[in-house]
């Protein structure tokens, strides 16, 4: 059965629209070095490296892991590249954890990144073939109809999206790495911004960021030597379903429900709202907070917006969501999932600084991708399971 | 370590010409066949290898999901690497997961673009890719470095191509290529066209199973007794191109000794010689009885096919210890070695 | 209008100036392609070097230090219409540049790229910008041995273009053949018995090949939609509506444009029909259908389409 897996090092870059000051390798090294420093290790202590990112068209380097090999300490070591669309940052961490849990390695470095400024996200996500033209303009164009369907199904009032947009940006002000920092952010400010893809307003969407996130995962033995308190993996899960098929629920996909059920079962959780102390959930458009609250079982169907409206998900609420500011505040796509996983670990390590949730002992990290069809999740805790 | 075996292997009849099929249409029959072969329709874990650049569009693996019947939702992952690394990920998952089967597949279509220039996009984006140096030109640099160190001649390379093509003609799934003809002009010297793997479309799938489940599913499972992969530095200028340090390391870790048959993912004739040396495969080892990548090289599947072909020699009882190899990156930068045996460890 | 000058003050052949040891050292080093400063008694490095400390007027130490050549812009001005005396004949910046290792800055021209005369300063031109000298090939020993400074390389342009000859796949070709004849083809899954449109050849839910081709009517119902305010070359105008339309008899929705009605009047449950382009414009492409437009029928209630959203 699975060996224990600890998170002993976490490193993030500053997230910005354009990190013109670094090369691609430099961006990864910045995050990786911080993770190694946190773990009290050097490059040579690492047994294997697992990297992840979203489509290669973003940077125009196809399967970039060979180019990066010696920049990220993989000379003479196993090096893997994971790609599961937007959920990739999470899946990459799960593959790395698997190498520890399977007893294959003692210390694994995992890094996820995106340098979106090297091209253009809308182009890189929707290159058209000669035979099919996408009518979807950017991710917002894809998700807007599903958000509309959620609003209709749940009867949620129009302002819920703005509440999330404000809450996450207020949290971002407490996170030194966050990209969007909007002092004085308010509901009025959000509601004044234009509808990009109605019903999604400008400030209800995520930014495009450059950035990388890295973690050092370790076996129990290796974790004992770590200078800082580790977080422990209590469960990991991934689920996928096709994008289009008859009978698919695109508002609350079955894949998300099944993935959550699997990871809760592994962690022994039956009531996530009560038993988890906080969650870092992939919310690239503000309306996805109430949608995922329902999909992940934090409340009943149609109740997610009420939870958001009540303030339960705020930093001082009973179940803070995205204390880091979340994807709404920083979004280097390929890294965004790993940032969720890492921020969850930071919380249970008590290392989240100004955006620390008091006494956080168990946290959920969540990522999704594609047409809300790929899911990856982990639960981390301050105690070894 | 948990006992894991290759219990089924399926591949397409690979094609050197564009048959007008979408990548998913190439893959679909392979998935159908391996489900029939194993009698399984659901697997504990699924993992695939593919690359967007062969379709020139993002998310090639997303549409591939359509052929799996991923409903109810499945536990699934994807590597933007050869399917051999997907097999590695599945093997790791089987080591600790609460699962006992895994489906692995890889697919690629290289007839739609110019493979060698597409591969240029994999190089260092500051110092190498802007030069426009292509995959075959880099391989030729490595061939020269190897030949100058070892004394191997162009005829030695030609002999490998001739043997591979002859074997390929006996393999119903490979391309059936003629004997190399004298008087060919160089492709990129010192490589001739016959030294270069053919452009190929194809797909392959493998089912892995653990312990007793493997014994139920296969009369003679091919047990994975060792699997390891290693990378080396990227820039060709910082490596000894005449050797493959990463293949040697992976071979040592995977326990590449006493091998009877080896399926090596050599995309160029000289790579077989470099790999033989790195893996310590003597003259007595039968290399690439399938014809190898020089007879069929569907991208993102060719490495997985090497493991499948090697496992098939266990399945049919013609060998008891075999090796499958896969590579990635320019000039054999990354190498994966999988050692399989008819006898399980216990 | 300025006319031709009528008086010119020019010392024939130019002045002959003696530069002294410190400036001489600086220019000699420039001619060699090096940037040099001099240390003050307080330990500061002056670039360009001077014979005296600008704060104390004491002699400098005579200790020369190689600096830069890269440096940081400490301040700048922007010349939108260069004079003929200026070192560049297109808009550029003047900048004070502190070379790495120096405590003072040097004035020089900074070329940040090609701009039309009168251009505003580019947004990336900033104090703190990292720059390097562009050396002249033929150097004579003078400040002009540096033609100008250039921003440090922070980005390279990497055009990539890969050419493909795609066929799209058999199923898609069959579907497009239908569209080229004015037909919308789906296919039925033998397991769930739903009609999939556009036809896929396989049921993504059940993972089995489809068995029956089904021609669908050109009418359907909007299940949900987005009003897009971001311009896109594929769409006629902004705002445009991208909608999921459930064709009558289909098991799943298709993403299409909806037009022929103001964007703010599109509704969930609205009945629509395909608007085909004139037959003579048809090809093997979905563009044969311009968009879907309203049908004069009552809306379907949300309950009827809820399971398709």
**Derived structural class of chain A:** alpha/beta
Mean pLDDT of chain B: 94
* Beta content of chain A: 15-25%
The secondary structure category of chain B is alpha/beta
* The CATH top-level class label of the domain at 6-121 and 208-224 in chain A: Alpha Beta
Give the SSE string of chain B: EHEHEHEHHHEHEHEHEHEE
What would CATH call the architecture of the domain at 6-121 and 208-224 in chain A? Answer: 3-Layer(aba) Sandwich
CATH topology category name of the domain at 6-121 and 208-224 in chain A = Peroxisomal Thiolase, Chain A, domain 1
Number of strands of chain A: 11
Helix content of chain A: 25-40%
**Quick one: overall form of chain A?**
globular
Helix content of chain B: 25-40%
Name of the CATH superfamily of the largest domain in chain B: Thiolase/Chalcone synthase
Our measurement of the CA-to-CA distance between the termini of chain A, rounded to an integer number of angstroms, reads 13 Å
Using the 3D structure, state the CATH architecture of the largest domain in chain B.
Answer: 3-Layer(aba) Sandwich
- Quick one: CATH class of the largest domain in chain B? Alpha Beta
């Amino acid at each position: 059965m699975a060996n224990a897996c600890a998170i002993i090092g976490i490193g993030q870059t500053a997230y910005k629209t354009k990190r013109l000051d670094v090369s691609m390798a430099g961006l990864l090294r910045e995050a990786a070095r911080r993770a190694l420093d946190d773990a009290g290790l050097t490059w040579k202590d690492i047994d294997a490296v697992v990297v992840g990112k979203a489509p290669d068209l973003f940077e125009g380097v196809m399967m970039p892991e060979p180019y990066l090999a010696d920049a990220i300490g993989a000379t003479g070591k196993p090096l893997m590249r994971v790609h599961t669309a937007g959920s990739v940052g999470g899946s990459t961490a799960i593959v790395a954890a698997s190498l520890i849990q399977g007893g294959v390695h003692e210390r694994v470095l995992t890094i996820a990144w995106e340098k979106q400024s090297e091209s253009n996200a809308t182009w890189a996500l929707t290159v058209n073939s000669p035979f099919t033209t996408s009518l979807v303009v950017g991710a917002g164009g894809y998700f807007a109809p599903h958000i509309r369907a959620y609003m209709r199904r749940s009867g949620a009032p129009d302002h819920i999206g703005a509440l999330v947009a404000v809450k996450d940006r207020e949290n971002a002000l407490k996170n030194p790495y966050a990209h969007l920092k909007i002092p004085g952010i308010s509901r009025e400010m959000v509601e004044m911004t234009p509808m990009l893809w109605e019903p999604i307003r400008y400030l209800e969407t995520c930014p495009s960021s450059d950035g990388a996130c890295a973690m050092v995962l370790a076996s129990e033995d290796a974790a004992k030597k770590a200078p800082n308190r580790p977080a422990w993996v209590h469960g990991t899960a991934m689920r996928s379903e096709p994008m289009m098929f008859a009978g698919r629920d695109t508002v609350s996909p079955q894949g998300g429900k099944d993935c959550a059920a699997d990871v809760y079962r592994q962690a022994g959780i039956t009531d996530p709202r009560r038993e988890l102390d906080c969650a870092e959930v992939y919310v690239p458009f503000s309306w996805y907070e109430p949608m995922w609250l329902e999909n992940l079982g934090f409340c009943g169907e149609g109740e997610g917006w009420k939870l958001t409206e009540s303030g339960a998900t705020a930093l001082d609420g009973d179940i803070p969501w995205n204390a880091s500011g979340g994807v709404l505040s920083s979004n280097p796509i390929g890294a965004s999932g790993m940032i969720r996983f890492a921020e969850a670990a930071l919380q249970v390590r008590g290392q989240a600084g100004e955006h620390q949730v008091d006494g956080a002992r168990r946290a959920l990290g969540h990522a999704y991708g594609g047409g809300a069809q790929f899911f990856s999740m982990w639960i981390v805790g301050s105690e070894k399971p | 370590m948990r006992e894991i075996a290759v219990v089924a292997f399926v591949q397409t009849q690979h094609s050197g010409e564009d048959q007008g099929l979408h990548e998913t249409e190439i893959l679909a029959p392979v998935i159908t066949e391996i489900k029939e072969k194993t009698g399984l329709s659901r697997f504990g874990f699924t993992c695939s290898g593919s690359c967007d650049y062969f379709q020139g569009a993002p998310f090639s693996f997303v549409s591939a999901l359509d052929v799996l019947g991923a409903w109810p939702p499945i536990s699934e992952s994807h590597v933007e690497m050869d399917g051999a690394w997907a097999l590695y990920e599945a093997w790791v998952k089987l080591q600790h997961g609460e699962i006992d089967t895994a489906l692995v597949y890889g697919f690629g279509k290289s007839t739609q673009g110019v493979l060698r220039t597409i591969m240029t996009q994999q190089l260092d984006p500051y110092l190498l890719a802007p030069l426009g140096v292509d995959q075959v030109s880099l391989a030729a640099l490595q061939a020269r470095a190897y030949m100058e160190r070892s004394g191997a001649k162009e005829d030695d390379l030609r002999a490998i191509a001739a043997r591979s093509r002859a074997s390929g003609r006996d393999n119903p799934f490979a391309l059936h290529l003629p004997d190399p003809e004298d008087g060919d002009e160089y492709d990129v010297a010192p490589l001739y066209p016959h030294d270069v793997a053919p452009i190929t479309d194809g797909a392959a799938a493998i089912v892995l199973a653990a312990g007793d489940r493997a014994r139920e599913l296969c009369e003679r499972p091919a047990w994975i007794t060792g699997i390891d992969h290693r990378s080396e530095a990227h820039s060709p200028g910082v490596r000894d191109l005449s050797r493959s340090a990463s293949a040697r390391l992976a071979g040592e870790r995977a326990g590449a000794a006493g091998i009877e048959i080896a399926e090596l993912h050599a995309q160029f004739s000289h790579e077989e010689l470099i790999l033989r040396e790195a893996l310590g495969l003597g003259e007595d080892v039968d290399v690439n009885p399938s014809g190898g990548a020089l007879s069929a090289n569907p991208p993102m599947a060719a490495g997985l096919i090497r493991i499948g072909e090697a496992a098939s020699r266990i399945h049919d009882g013609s060998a008891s210890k075999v090796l499958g190899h896969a590579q990635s990156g320019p000039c054999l930068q990354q190498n994966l070695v999988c050692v399989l045996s008819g006898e399980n460890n216990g | 209008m300025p006319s031709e000058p009528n008086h010119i003050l020019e010392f024939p052949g130019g002045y002959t100036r003696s530069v002294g040891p410190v400036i001489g050292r600086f220019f000699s080093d420039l001619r060699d392609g090096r940037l040099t400063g001099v240390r003050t008694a307080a330990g500061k490095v002056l670039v360009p070097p001077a014979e005296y400390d600008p704060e104390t007027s004491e002699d400098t130490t005579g200790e020369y230090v190689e600096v830069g050549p890269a440096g940081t812009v400490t301040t700048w001005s922007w010349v939108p219409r260069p004079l003929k005396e200026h070192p560049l004949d297109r808009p550029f910046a003047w900048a004070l540049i502190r070379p790495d290792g120096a405590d003072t800055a040097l004035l020089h021209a900074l070329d940040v790229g090609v701009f039309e005369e009168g251009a505003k300063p580019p947004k990336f031109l900033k104090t703190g910008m990292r720059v390097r000298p562009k050396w002249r090939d033929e150097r004579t020993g003078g400040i002009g041995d540096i033609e100008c400074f250039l921003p440090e390389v922070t980005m390279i342009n990497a055009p990539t273009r890969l050419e493909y000859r795609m066929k799209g796949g058999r199923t898609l070709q069959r579907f497009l053949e239908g569209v080229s004849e004015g037909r919308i083809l789906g296919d039925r899954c033998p397991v769930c018995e739903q009609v999939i449109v556009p036809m896929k050849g396989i049921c993504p839910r059940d993972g089995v090949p489809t068995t029956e081709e089904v021609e669908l009517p050109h009418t359907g119902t909007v299940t949900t939609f987005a009003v897009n305010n971001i311009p896109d070359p594929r769409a006629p105008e902004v705002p445009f509506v991208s909608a999921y339309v459930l064709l009558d008899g289909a098991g799943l929705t298709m993403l299409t444009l909806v037009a022929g009605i103001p964007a703010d009047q599109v509704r969930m449950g609205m009945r629509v029909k395909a608007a085909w382009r004139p037959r003579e414009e048809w090809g093997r492409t979905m563009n044969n259908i311009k968009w879907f437009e309203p049908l004069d029928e009552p809306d379907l209630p949300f309950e009827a389409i809820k399971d398709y959203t």
